[in-house]
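Pipeline run #58 for the internal structure catalog. This entry was flagged by the ingest filter as a single-chain record with no existing model, so it goes straight to prediction. Upstream metadata was stripped on purpose; only the residue string is passed forward. Reviewer on rotation: M.T. Logging verbosity set to normal.
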Amino acid sequence: MLVTLTTFAADYLLNFMLMKRFGWMLIAIGVCLAACAPNNVKEEKDWEKYFTQYKVEGTFMLFNNAQGEFKVYNLERAKQRFLPASTFKIFNSLVGLQTGIIRDTSMVIPWDSVTREFPEWNQDLSMQQAFKLSAVPYYQEIARRIGQPTMQLWLDSVKYGNMKISRIDTFWLDNSLLISPDEELGFVKKLYFNQLPFAKTNMQTVREVMLMEKTPKYELSYKTGWDYKDTKKIGWIVGWIEENRHPSFFVLNIETEDPNFDMPKNRMAILRSILTEAGYFQGKM
């Protein structure tokens, strides 16, 4: 069965257990809902053209919450786990805020080193700036301040990916922590609906820093990720697009061995192409 449905089946199962007090009839309804869920999944093989255009392997998942409809390209890859790279900043931010390690989005961590690949990181940054710039050093320091026992507790509580930690300041970058596109989709959906075990104010704060585009027609919220050091470079964009207060959740995961591949530019081009073809950005969804 599609792993996406397994993730969301967990929500159905929780409701199933809670409904015991209301009688076996409601339980039967809950089972029916879970059993019918796979019928809403549609494979969009036509989206392959966008991956072919940029010569990448990948998957794209789109869940329209209002219609309860999944559209997925490359189901098999959607089940596989990959390192989350900087998409982990969503989780890291939540834990930092929940534990008080991050005071608020304006909290600055001084920086006195040099990062050649990303010169924009070579400055003192606030949490909000570090999130927008995807500054790894800032969030490595946050992870060190959180500490491994506390981080492990939250990974286990949320059941984030395979929940594995190697070194506290590299585990989301070194193939220790792994997560599937399906699991990423379930995670951001729960974040949007305040269904994670964090304070609602902290989840709201993270949703606010994830907002990257706001127009009269739509709001686009996401976090990117990029494993640029390995031979096989993994790229992510995870988040949601909201029109008329109706969210649709998405995950893009791509992979390339081309050392000259422009990951920031091309992954966004793929995302926008697919969402445009699916009817978004017009304020009509």
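catalog note: The first strand starts at residue 41 and ends at 43.
catalog note: The chain has eleven helices and nine strands.
status: ready for reviewer M.T.
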